[in-house]
Design a protein that fits this description.
This protein is an all-alpha fold. The protein contains eleven helices and no strands.
Amino acid sequence: MNAHLIHVEAEAARENDELIKALTLIEEALVAYQKEKDYEGFSQALQSRVLTYKHLFLLTKDHVFAILAKNDANASLEITQKHNITTRIGSCYFRLGEVAMLFEDYKSAVENYQKALDNYAGSNSERGDYRYHLGFALGKIGQLEKAKETMLNGLSEIQENRNEVNSFLTHVWESGGYMRLAELLRQNEPEQAKKYLEEARKIIKSDKKLIIRKRQIEELEATFTS
């Protein structure tokens, strides 16, 4: 099996919440990509592992996983720059933004998410995903109004360009945007936050593939009743 097919299998395992299986497959993909001298694929596989470590950190709260995610995110960027893979620079900074959020370094998260947008090369729909992440980070540094505007703009980009990507990705990004809005507004605008939470719930309920999102929204809903 070639590197790309192994990588696809790893992504599927992660989305099924089989995180340890995903890590094993990513390791196989990394070895295969290196043998093929496919450094773009190698960088992407590292980013896949960043996301898997992120999920493990959120599940366990063990900072070992956050540290591993940070190392892989930095390695992905360095490899991408060394091999001048310009179309992937934006995604490298996006993963660095996600890692900064794990460490609650919100200022760095804002900086990296902005760099991700500045170097973005992809679908308009996924740009919306990047944008709402930037908005959420802005909210974490106290820029609430700018955060809301940025996040809603990101959601609009996702929705207006949904035909560019498959429905699963649209549902992942859109539900994530609504969940983060609900989380951000829970204290200051609780009624609006509940409306956004309900929008996320509808999307997640409509797509049985959103296994991780189902777990995440249950965790978020618990914070609204505690």
